[in-house]
Design goal:
This protein is mainly α. It has helices at residues 2-28, 44-99, 105-137, 149-166. It starts with a helix and ends with a helix.
Length: 169
């Protein structure tokens, strides 16, 4: 009986040691190139090894998706900062034009209107950023509508034409 118990213990302990060695090797490689669990038996330990491998793959997929989300958020923040910087630069130029002694009253009035439009544009950008936050929380409703882009493009053209003229460009 003792010999049987020792042989059984050695068999099960050996399989567990093999499984632990496999996990340590996988861990040292940050679970890259994960080989099949090296168990020769077809019992519960082999099933455990298979489940562990599938679990590791699952968490690797989650980690990859999270890495992509972080990259996309970083890119989004960069684009959002650029989109906010553009109207701020327009505001600075507009204010410089208004406070200049060389600016005619008509140009000041037109520049004031452009500044107002730029502020409205910035409010819209901030609202869009808030909408993105709502999207992430799942609290966003879509309202689709057709929009005529020609007036928007004309307004932008007028705005930048005024800035270019104030700079003699």
């Amino acid at each position: 009986i003792s010999a049987g118990v020792m042989a059984s213990e050695r068999f099960f302990t050996g399989e567990i040691r093999t499984l632990l060695a496999w996990l340590r090797d996988a861990s040292s490689k940050n679970y890259k190139q994960l080989a099949a669990a090296p168990l020769t038996s077809s019992d519960e330990l082999a099933e455990l090894g298979l489940e562990m491998k599938e679990g590791i793959w699952y968490f690797q997929e989650i980690e990859e998706r999270e890495r992509k989300v972080v990259e996309q958020k970083s890119e989004f923040i960069s684009v959002a900062a650029h989109q906010l910087r553009t109207p701020l630069t327009g505001l600075r130029w507009g204010i410089e034009t208004i406070v200049s002694d060389k600016t005619s009253p008509e140009l000041r009035t037109k520049t004031g209107g452009n500044i107002y439009s730029t502020i409205e544009q910035m409010i819209s950008l901030v609202d869009s950023l808030l909408d993105v936050a709502k999207l992430e929380e799942g609290k966003f409703d879509f309202h689709f509508e057709q929009v005529d882009l020609v007036p928007l493009v004309r307004k932008m053209f007028d705005h930048f034409t005024l800035i270019a003229q104030s700079r003699s460009i």
